[in-house]
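thought: fold this chain, then report.
action: predict
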Amino acid sequence: MSNKSVDRTGRALTRITPLAGVLTAGLTIAGYQTIGPFPDASTPVSELRNFYAHTGGHVTLAGTFLGWAGICFAVFAAAVLARLRGSGVPAVVVGVVALGAAADMMADLNSGAVYQLLGQLGVDPGVSGGALQAWHISGAAFGVAGGAMLFLLGVAVAGIRYGALPRSLAWTGLVLAIVPFAPHPWGYFASLAFLLWMAVAGVVLAVRPERRTSMGDVTAAAMA
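observation:
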């Protein structure tokens, strides 16, 4: 394969891979829509048995969607990291984005695996009610998404301070990184907004060409 062909392939991948953010949002929404209304963490065991008896297959399928969403997020994050490295962003900022992406990907994959398991446990008569309820709580309750927050904070710094990403994406990412600390239900709305942010960012990064920046430009931006 000639160098010219390799360059064309590289440019094509640079254009296409950010669109994995759109797939991440779509698969995540599809997963939660497939589950439908999900019982909260305080639901009695008798009601859980009835719920899984009717929707266990849907919960398992939703877990598959969410698992694939986690994989697509990894591809999207890799595209963002490639853009940051190509723009000369300091290694420490790139490292923060990478750590946040890895943590969020693992959380997404774990969430998908839990729902797949719940769909099976919920219809297994050999599983005790207490065990089912314990696993159900792990799927129904959630806390602050630390990985996503770290990822967005790194992206915000890269965009606002070093111009590696459109500043509109950077500023909205900064807001979304802070909102999860707000009282319920703002944290929940922020998680939904993060899906929209990924879809929009994926399209924007796919449409706008990568801007190569020298280290001199980065130093000048940092001192500005």
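thought: worth noting. The chain has nine helices and no strands.
final: tokens above.
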